[in-house]
Design brief:
about 160 residues; 5 strands; 6 helices; alpha/beta; 5-stranded parallel sheet; globular; binds adenosine-5'-diphosphate; Rossmann fold
Amino acid sequence: MTIALYPGTFDPVTWGHVDIATRSARIFERLVVAVYDTPSKNLLFSTEERVALFRESVRDLPNIEVTEFSGLVVARAKSLGAQVIVRGLRSGSDFDYEFEMAFMNKNLAPDVELVCLMASLPYQYVSSSLLKEVIALGGDVDSLVPHHAVEAIKEKMALEAQS
Ligand code: ADP
């Protein structure tokens, strides 16, 4: 069975992430979305919340599962028996980052391959960080983020504003 691992921060999930996951799940028999437990980023959502929001977005796709993880991506790939790491590319800067990371990962785990899917056109400029900024300023991003994630962002921001 070909198992692929799709790691990321997903703070929160966007339709861009769901698009990559859905397309990967057509190529690979099983896709495991791995939500970083301890990314070096300032996050809006906890790990459990990020997992739950992604899970809700792909609940109709039986060969996708969403889990949390910490540590090295290649170590998680190995422990799962995944042959492939999936990432999405939106731009040259995504490419540069993945290219550098791929060399390191190949060094650590020569058997694990990286497969990058190009972002679909409607989601080319979609990033979780930009969306959070736009929502904070009252912008409408409903076509770019699953509805339940938009609601969760608004709720979280309202809570933060109160504290
Ligand atoms: P990370 O911190 O690992 O970059 P992200 O949640 O920002 O986590 O992104 C996870 C993966 O999804 C990365 O490979 C990223 O390039 C990809 N990605 C993010 N947004 C999009 C999008 N709109 N379309 C396609 N791929 C995307």
